[in-house]
Design goal:
Length: 837
RNA sequence: GCACGAGUGGCGAAACUGGCAGACGCAGCAGACUUAAAAUCUGCAGGCUCUUCAAUGGGCCGUCCGGGUUCGAUUCCCGGCUCGUGCACCA
């Protein structure tokens, strides 16, 4: 055998796989399909280690399942629209399409050096009209169903640079705002009032929430993040009459049981009733406060540490239960877009109300005691459930009882209703940028004076992005770039044929990733987003691998979209993904996130060049369990390189004697030992792969190789036919076990030992059950739970026999001498324990 | 504050359903080969400690802390600490 040379064998095998179409979807299978998917990347110029790890986790499964006989779908594509290309264009004038095409080419070339088992025939590019026309199609379908609408509202505008950040200069979704800054560029997010298009995702809040219980193979942290994000809250809405007016203030509360203790009402500064509630005497103060609040963003008004502030409107409301007159205030902490924008304040039983009441000397009335014994004696508010006091006919009832019966009372009186409120808002997806999907809407003065928007007819799709002069259109300033392209924006009205203007906004790129997993299955389908027949067979995705940072964005959006696709009859599943795997981050050797600034980055291409793709792959899976972060370690990479060479040496040294040698009949002595090592390793590795424990799979292979090397056993000196045949088999099995992790290496090994086709086209081997058990096995012997000895016993030994062997051991004898054995615990094949008195 | 996750040698980690804690690897130490180094191969390796010239053999402690259940707990239960993530003046 020649020397191990990754730079020679890796391109060779990559070419083989491509030529033979080894990884194509659609092969006949009696076992069914497995759809293995990794989150599609934004094609930046080059890969980072995170990509390598992400795709590898999918690749191990894709290869493994293929060898188990499944029809495997394993596609890759490009999330090609988006801001980086557009921002770069603003800087250097290169058209986003040009740059994107270049990036895809280089990114793809790099991905291919790692030898992933992709079916490149399924490749998808979301920035191609062939793809994004279906975004537009979905938009129109959803518009028809009332799932898309235009609203005028306060939006999150990413436009204020912080510490040199480059703002996106566009609206972003709630999901993209983290702690008041843009999750993408870290610029400050400000409130802006403007029209925008939104998806009615909240129509599915309940469904999205309920189905989380069924996503048993999703990580808890993801389902829990979605649960928090959706934020279901059960309570009631109740009307407070306004004194001296027919006006009502509707409040939302989860604690209607405390309503007898409501001593004031607070509304948001931008609540619709503020003007009507305000008395002439208070007007100046209220106006000043409202103005001051309007100047601040939601984040500035509500983030932690901001002091509660409010003013009295002069108006009063009537508590519907006590008929008491309570003052109405406005305060900074009340949000107009949650609940009804008005709250009944019960300072005795809510921390926040308590703080506000103390600050402004408002009365505090206790209406709930912790229990029948008496009042709460601690500091501040008593916020838990308890027993009602001073609450009329509800006095003496528990909080839970009171909530039910008070809700019924309100409903009967026609002044309230049980109500579920959600934290999740609709998904605003208008973006004031160029490099995205044009929204297929036109505005016609004549047909649509109120500017609701007229849908572009299906027959006119796609509405393609116009050719542009980059430096004129992509300036990063002013109105949406497309509005500057007169030849494009000016069009004719599909209804009256008169002059009209196109919608100049584009869609959030998260729209693209909502359904790409279905498009992969029929990437060039022309009459619908994808072929429903194929989708029926291949969906849902069985394994989806990606980063946990998408918990409340992509992973929520595409669940929503799948529901819509089901309603449209495009697919039969409601949930897109059965099993979700979220991989941890690969940090620099210094423990910090890899970055240019720190100079702690390790480029995959460097590692491939230095050691080959297989070493890079082997290291990344061996470094730790998939979901955990790990720090890069150059030395450990070398360790994998050494390991591969050790395997190579083993196979190489045995090659001339063992290659192709077979032996029928029983193996004995060293030959049996070799076979046992190989079959045990096969069993162990298979089980490890099944439970996503790739690092221990590698460890198991290392152990087997170490055992074959062991000089005490001398297994590498092959003197008989039996031994040669056993070694031949061992190398063959090792190459199978290795192939999901280090495919080029494994195939080269197999080929040197006579394989005529790639291992991925062969079946995953089965271990021989007779070879994975030993005749004599170790037992741990405990006395009172403490380890006292280790003994060997025959596999078939009975409890009494093992006990006799244990009692014969000197250490055990000493430990139980002079004591009576009260109990003898026997765990077959593992351990015995003497309980003595 | 609420929710979720994690905490094991110098380091990355393992221990599948309550059954020998630390597999495998990195770093380390020692040895073989070599003029030498690298590479390779071999051995040692949680802490403390006892017997012994030594090899070896033994004892005690040890999986964030404190309790509990159990013959036996890294694993299950209760309470707490620390770190990470999500949500958060959400009524």
């Amino acid at each position: 055998m020649h020397e191990y040379q990754p730079s020679v064998i890796e391109p060779k095998w990559q070419q083989q796989w491509t030529q033979r179409g080894t990884f194509r979807m659609g092969r006949p299978s009696t076992k069914g399909k497995k759809y293995v998917l990794e989150m599609l990347p934004y094609p930046s110029g080059s890969m980072h280690m995170g990509h390598v790890r992400n795709y590898l986790l999918g690749d191990v499964y894709a290869r493994y399942f293929r060898m188990l006989g499944y029809d495997v779908v394993h596609p890759m594509g490009w999330d090609a629209f988006g801001l980086p290309a557009e921002n770069a264009a603003i800087k250097d004038g290169v058209h986003p399409a040009t740059r994107t095409a270049q990036n895809i080419a280089s990114f793809k070339a790099e991905i291919q050096t790692l030898g992933y088992s992709y079916d490149w025939d399924l490749e998808v590019n979301t920035s191609s009209p062939e793809y994004y026309r279906w975004n537009q199609w979905f938009f129109l379908k959803m518009l028809e169903r009332g799932l898309v609408y235009r609203r005028f509202s306060k939006v999150n505008w990413c436009g204020e640079s912080v510490k040199g950040s480059v703002p996106c200069n566009t609206v972003i979704a709630n999901e993209q705002v983290k702690d008041g800054v843009c999750e993408r560029c870290d610029s400050k997010v400000i409130d802006k009032n403007m029209p925008e298009w939104a998806f009615r995702i909240t129509k599915y809040s309940q469904s999205l929430l309920d189905a989380l219980d069924g996503l048993k193979e999703w990580p808890d942290r993801i389902t829990s993040a979605q649960r928090n994000w959706i934020g279901r809250s059960e309570g009631v809405e109740a009307d407070f009459a306004v004194e001296g007016s027919t006006e009502k203030i509707r409040v939302f509360t989860t604690r209607v049981d405390t309503i007898h203790g409501c001593t004031y009402v607070v509304v948001a500064p931008d609540h619709a009733s503020v003007a009507k509630l305000t008395t002439p005497a208070q007007k100046a103060e209220v106006d000043a406060f409202v103005k001051k609040m309007a100047a601040r963003s939601k984040t500035e008004r509500t983030e932690e540490g901001v002091e509660k502030e409010g003013v009295f409107t002069g108006g009063f409301a009537i508590n519907p239960f006590t008929r008491a007159k309570v003052p109405v205030w406005i305060a900074n902490f009340v949000l107009s877009d949650y609940g009804t924008g008005a709250v009944m304040s019960v300072p005795a039983h809510d921390e926040r109300d308590h703080e506000f009441a103390v600050k402004y000397s408002l009365p505090i009335v206790t209406v709930v005691h912790p229990d029948a014994k008496g009042p709460f004696t601690g500091e501040g508010a008593f916020t838990e459930d308890g027993v009602l006091v001073g609450s009329g006919e509800w006095t003496g009832k528990t909080s839970a009882e009171a909530r039910t019966s008070m809700a019924a009372f309100l409903e009967k009186a026609g002044i309230g209703t049980p109500k579920v409120t959600w934290r999740q808002k609709d998904w605003g997806f208008s973006r004031q940028r160029y490099w995205g999907t044009p929204i297929p809407i036109v505005y016609c003065e004549k047909c649509d004076p109120e500017r609701h928007g007229i849908p572009v007819p299906y027959a006119q799709l796609p509405v393609t992005l116009p050719e542009i002069k980059v430096e004129e259109v992509l300036t990063g300033k002013g109105e949406p770039p497309l509005a500057k392209v007169a030849s494009w924006v000016n069009t004719t009205c599909p209804r009256c044929g008169g002059p009209a203007r196109r919608e100049a906004e584009t869609m959030d790129t998260f729209v693209d990733s909502c359904w790409y997993f279905a498009r992969y299955l029929s990437p060039h389908f022309e009459t619908a987003p994808f072929d429903a027949e194929v989708a029926k067979k291949m969906l849902p995705v069985d394994i989806y691998v990606g980063g946990p940072e998408h918990a409340t964005m992509h992973l929520l959006y595409f669940r929503f979209w799948t529901r819509v696709m089901k309603e449209l009859g495009l697919c039969t599943v409601e949930e897109p993904v059965t099993r979700l795997i979220t991989q941890g981050i690969v940090n620099g050797a210094d423990g910090f996130k890899m970055s240019k600034r720190r100079g702690n980055g390790v480029a995959p291409s460097e590692i491939v060049k230095k050691f080959g793709a297989d070493t890079a792959r082997g290291y990344v899976v061996f470094a730790g369990p998939p979901e955990r972060d790990f720090d890069w370690n150059d030395k450990a990479v070398e360790g994998i390189w050494k390991f591969l060479n050790r395997v190579w040496t083993l196979a190489s040294d045995a090659h001339d004697q063992a290659r192709g040698v077979t032996h029928e009949g029983p193996h004995t002595g060293k030959a049996l030992e070799i076979r046992k090592i190989a079959h045990k390793c096969l069993k162990r590795t298979t089980e490890a792969i099944e439970r996503l424990s790739f690092n221990t799979a590698i460890a198991g292979i290392m152990e087997a190789v170490n055992a074959l090397y062991d000089p005490k056993q001398g297994l590498r000196e092959l003197s008989t036919v039996e031994e040669r045949a056993a070694m031949n088999e061992a190398v063959r099995l090792l190459s199978f076990i290795l192939v999901p992790f280090v495919p080029h290496f494994a195939n080269e090994l197999a080929q040197a030992y006579g394989a005529t086709s790639p291992l991925e086209e062969q079946s995953w081997p089965a271990y021989d059950p007779a070879l994975v058990v030993d005749d004599v096995i170790p037992y741990a012997v405990q006395v009172m739970g403490k380890l006292r000895a280790e003994i060997m016993a025959p596999l078939a030994a009975t409890e009494a026999e093992v006990r006799a062997l244990a009692e014969a051991n000197d250490n055990v004898k000493a430990a139980i001498a002079g004591k009576t054995v009260k109990k003898f615990v026997f765990v077959p094949k593992r351990l015995v324990n003497f309980v003595v008195g």
